[in-house]
Amino acid sequence: SLRYSIPVEPRAPISDAVANSRYLIPPRNVFWADPHVLDIDGRQHVFFEEFDKHLDRGVVKHLSLDKAGTVSTPKTVLSPGYHLSYPHVFKHDNDIYMVPESEGQGAIKLFRCHRFPGDWRFECNLMSGLRAADSTLVKRDGKWWLFTTVSKFKGGSTAVHLYIYYSDNLKTGEWHPHGGNPVISDSQSARMAGAFIERDGQLFRPAQNSAWRYGYGLKIFRVDRLTETEYKETLFDCVTPGDDRRVRGIHSLAQTKGLVVSDAELRRSRFRFLHYFDIHS
């Protein structure tokens, strides 16, 4: 099994749950990555990227789990004809939204769900004219905060510089740059690795650790201060492949109250799989 620690509870890691892990293996010639989770009516809904090697692009897939751990058949829910990944999903004002990564389109796109879970329609561009990866939203202190890694020139890396933008309204398109941008310039901690984790009012930021190579591991940071001009965070936990030599890396995770989902890469087969386990808190 894969051994690591994920800080769902700010007070303690949950590495003990790894012993009860189960695996979801993708079909041949595709890999699964970038899971995001919503808890709706007692059922866990997982949205994730499925990358087809023959098509050379990703689509957004969905599956669900009930309380007994029964998994539904994965189905495609968003495939606009260009590459998508990192389907960041969230609820707002009785609606469900998704911000999938569409770096190749030069925009951060917002989709709204008209019939859950499979009918998604383009709502607006949050931002245009930039190459941004793994954009992640969080609402805090009455404002929307958008965290994203940006490359300022063609061919540049989108894993090094973390930028923050803020707005009073989700859909106005009036996003203001944070006064400290880029707030982080470090391949070991800049790029987002999933939605923010919030517990007892404390915010935690999952980040990709690409120190050795892309997709090696994760770092979890406690957000200590977030204002229009300041951003401070403290390293809280690390997630690495551990001692299992089959596992080459882990680069994204998501959590709800009763579930943690992460992706990982197996060395022997060179594919990604979703790894999940139940948490009893």
List the keywords.
281 residues; five-stranded antiparallel beta sheet
Characterize the structure shown:
This protein has strands at residues 22-24, 30-40, 43-52, 57-65, 75-78, 85-92, 95-101, 107-115, 119-128, 131-140, 143-151, 161-167, 176-177, 184-185, 197-199, 202-209, 217-226, 231-239, 247-249, 253-255, 259-266, 272-278. With 281 residues, it is mostly beta strands. Strands 1, 19, 20, 21 and 22 form a five-stranded antiparallel sheet that branches. Strands 10, 11, 12, 13 and 14 form a five-stranded antiparallel sheet that branches. 40% of the residues are buried.
Proportion in β-strands = over 45%
Q: Give the termini separation.
A: 22 Å
Helix content: under 10%
Compute the CA-based radius of gyration: 18 Å
Total beta strand runs: 22
Structural class by SSE content: mainly beta
Order of helices and strands: EEEEEEEEEEEEEEEEEEEEEE
Q: Specify the number of helices.
A: 0
